[in-house]
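Section 3.1 - Work completed
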Amino acid sequence: MAVISETELQRRLLLLERKSSVIGSKVTKKDPVKGNYAEGDLQYNAATGNLWIFKSGVWEIAPDVLHIRYADNVVNIGADNKASSQSDITGFSEQAFNSAGVQKAFRGLYWGSSTASTSSTAYEWFNVSSAASTLMERYWANSSARLVNIGNPDIPGAGVVWTALSSGQNPPSASFWVAERFYVGGLWTAWQIYPTQADELGIPFVKYIKSGSKPTLGSAQWITDVVEAASVQTGLSFSNQKELGYGTVVVIQYDNGKISGQFKRVSGADTWVAPSQLIDGDVIVDGSLTANHLQANSIGTSKLIVTGVDAVTATTFGAASASDVFTTGTTTIDGGKITTGSINATDITTGTLNAARINGGTISGVLIDGVGITGGTIGIGTPAAGARSTLNGYNVEVNSQGYLQAVDFVNFGNVGVFGNADGLASGVRVYNAGTGCAIWATNTHATNNVHQHGIRGEHTSVTHTSGLVGPANAYSFYAEHGAGYGPFTGSHDALIPTGTSIPYGDIVIDHSCISKVDISNTIFKVVRSSSPNQKAVVGVLVHNNGLLVNAYPPSAFVVSREIDEETEEEVIVYTSAWDSVKNTYDGVIMNSIGEGQINVIGEAGNLEAGDLIVTSSTAGKGMKQSDDIVRSYTVAKVREDVTFTSLTEEKLVACIYLCG
């Protein structure tokens, strides 16, 4: 026996009530049998949950479903909420949003069979902006996951957060999906979910064969075929073109020809355009294929044949053997090889290596004997006037005991050692395999001076750089003596989708965990606070470092750092999450503890120094907490008196952060 919910039972009973023109209708515990019935009679079997209708002399199961459509504009709406002519209805569509992601102005409701009516005049039309909020609920989500993975506001998908929209409010620019449902005939409808924008990174290439005649590029039939093609090729379920992402290239072969299209956003609208260049055939002429002819991310190892007759091998590249292409630990020069240990002192002819062979002629007075550099002192440079010592007339010297000594570099601010490097290399790097300190810095100057530091770290040229970085297995920084750290503000790394705009000083809350590297390092995607007393509050945004791939990577993505012995550059090993977010998220910094400032609003009244601050109903802004007990949703403690002229006035005020 089929079991249905109470809601479904109510819906079907309401259906019977709606059929005012029905000659006869009844509820029983059995299916109808032959008898004296009239066209349109209804019978509901409470045991099986089936609703039957008498049509053309036979009984049929009669599903009655609420269908929803949208229109840009509807005029001449009658007392029954219908328009008499299809010319009164423009932009009739199943989609709630136009190609620019803007909500259509009118919503149409239609009760009918499982197949919706294609006639716009069959629907009851309502203006979306004037619809009473009690008749519908709307939510938005900024997850770019596919429809099958995002769930709905009642049962959200993994890591998906649905945020409620107030009556008449359009979804924000960061939204990817909108869900809405309606209160009709005393019941809530199922959630209907629509995409508002596409991901910026599409599927590189989709190739498909489809029976039938080719449609027009960009037409409704083309879009239907594209969604089918992408689903078949990837094995994933797609419901609309926005889920494919911008940049997706699709080639479909029909019975009467082939169509190629690329999905783009042109002047704010989703558009299919013919690729400007496409290699369509089996032969690539020498020199015809260059980097600008390849779609980004379109060639991977899965696209190369590595076994069989047509496999890519060393000879494909003109090499004699695989070892001539690359062999670990060796380097190929003009066809010859230098292997480990193959060059030693006996392989260098006497007299062939001299100052003329070395750039600038900078080696003299020393002996290269195949083991090391021996004899005397190696000196570099001449001290400038005013240096406190001369080290036998050199700026830097290595003495006969192997000690490196350096005098003042007057031209570089009187520093003992000056390091300069490009790329990921370090200006100065010190190794110590012993039990002591790698660097011990002591300042013994007797005069008090604000610049008198043991170690000073400073970096001002680009974003997301730090004066000092201290990775360690225990404390990264340890205050052995003194008054601790000061002035003190504790900050965290976080992520926001690229293109998201959050004012500095606004409150942010945790949305979803992106990466965990160890017990002390995690990183989350954050969003602006949106309602009072949110417990997920984690800090106040203070800086956006820009796209992750262009900035110093947050520690929660770094498994290890090593130095390449050949290039002396830093090699970073990342967590598995790095590649999926480095080109789509910005790294941001948020203050969570210590001193700073915060954006507040007058929603809960004026503030006195010492009052606690919580999130408000205004996105990103704080307000006065209702009591003076530090709670899970407390953001900060205000440090100054603040007077507001209205409930909506916003101010930036001094505070002590208490949320992280």
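Second construct:
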Amino acid sequence: MNEPRVASEPCLLEPDGVFGQILDALADMVLVRGEDARILWANRAFLEYTGTSNTDLRDPMRAPAPDQDLGAQSARDRQRLLGSGEVLDIAEEPLTRHDGVIQIFHTLESPVGDPGGKVRMTVAVARNITGQRRMQDELDRYRQHLEKLVGDRTSQIRALSDRLQLVLSSLAEGIVALDGAGHVRLLNPAAENLTGWNTDEARGQELGGLLDFEPEATGVCLPDILGGGRPTSGRLRARGGSTFLVSLKGSPLVGPSGELVGSVVVIRDIGAERALEEQRLSNQKLESVGLLAGGIAHDFNNIVTGILGSISLARMGLERGEDITGLLGEAQQACLRTKGLTTQLLTFAKGGAPLKKVLHVERVVRESAEFALRGSLVELVIRRPADAWPVEADEGQLAQVLNNLVLNAKQAMPGGGTICISLDNLHLGEDPALPLPPGPYLVIAVEDSGPGIPPEHLSRVFDPYFTTRDAGTGLGLASVHSIVRRHGGHVSVSSEPGAGACFRLYLPAQPHELASGVAAPVSAVVRRARKLLVVDDDPGVLTVMRSMLHHLGHEVSLAERSSVALSAFERARTAGAPFEAVFADLTMPGDLGGLELAAWLREKAPDVRIVVMSGYSVDPVMADPAARGFAGALPKPFTVEALSRAVESCFEPSARLPAR
């Protein structure tokens, strides 16, 4: 009774049937199989793929046979389908098209039972996944290729990291790596040795907590170093207390979008390098000072010739009853010029703090320039405003600076030319181009019309011993830089090939001060007679000072040794007539110097006023006597007017007394 019904059911799927039309519209292949696996009906997609028709499917002779390779497996799958009623899911099934091309299909085959539950036929839906499979194969191949690339690159990065670790471990310089927030991430072994920290302990700290660094230059801090730029030298104190002279240089690390992702600090131990450099400079300085001394000896002999000539003429004029005041004045001026020569030699040999006083520089500029250009073919032009500000400077050292700059310009123009020196007042604001604090400055520009400085030499002109002349020492411009810096100023140079060179001095100015350099000499008039003790190891100095002080009306006692001075000082104090002031030489070979003698005297009389004297005008004590408790300083040689000023000034209320 069931057979006719089953046989008639496929008729519902004929082309004129509703279900047949619906299934023919599908892109997937749909086919109905009987119990014997023979295809009973198929939709249009299947028929077009296999190149057959439903009429052919009903003819056993013309119906397509299943693939032979899949026959055994297909039989087992079908047996399971018919026996259990499960849906058969074949993920990938190769099917041959009518033209012999094999494509891959995903097939779902479901059982269809009769009212009694017996499976009489199955319905299979096959979707062509050849394109997806091809794409998946391409993706698999690409994935494998990417995995290989990643593996290769990972191996390269690992090898590079190993080499980088080896390089970092081998570097003599310390390397500190920071993240974008400024926290320590890594230290190499050299950095661990210099800082006393290991990476694990330092990781996460800020740089300031890791580096106890004291820069040599003022106004420099660690954030400035991290910003890059030139290396900064200074003292680095390690965690264990050791101290290193190092150079720090920071470099920011910038990401692809320009954001700061971190920074690297390089720490270089420059202690041995600095010691070798100082030894080399010391040796070269001795050689150069020898050359310089020869030149100064030449100038010194010229000056002495003028002195002897003036004295000889004065003696002849005195015998004839003539006025010899002018001749003696010329001899005195020549003697004062020798003081400038010795100061120059001492500055080259030792350096030294300037003995500053407030002065107008016009006279110093003119005298120094005219002296340096004497007998040359160079024309001198001086331009200055009527109200040029005075500066606080050492007159001798400033004259040396100007003399060196003018000589340098003259030597650049052996055939003649023009040197223009201009003075200008400048109110300096915040200027990153000048390493100077804001304030008033006097700018002295020395410009020549020579061939200029080659660009490759421009950055080295202030280096010690750098010279392009066979007979040069390389100390002239180096001393200019050193002296100007000790005055709290700055010197710069600019030049264009063929257009000359211009050196600019920036000196702190004193717009509201009176200039002592233009004050009239103090007359040898005594406000009050004083009882004075003079201590010096040179009998000639003692003799002339006694004559000068007697001329000024003072009572004077002399001591050639410190023991004599102490005895005389104690006798006068015990007798109730103590010395009011002591003039002591700073250096007395084989005996107590001025500092030691002053300490002994203050133990006996804490209020005693002591004036220090020295021919070493560059000594720091002479530059700032009040810092050592002296009431004044008297550089040798000196005139009777200078001695008179020293006596009177040491009793001024502003004169410093030693701390109690």
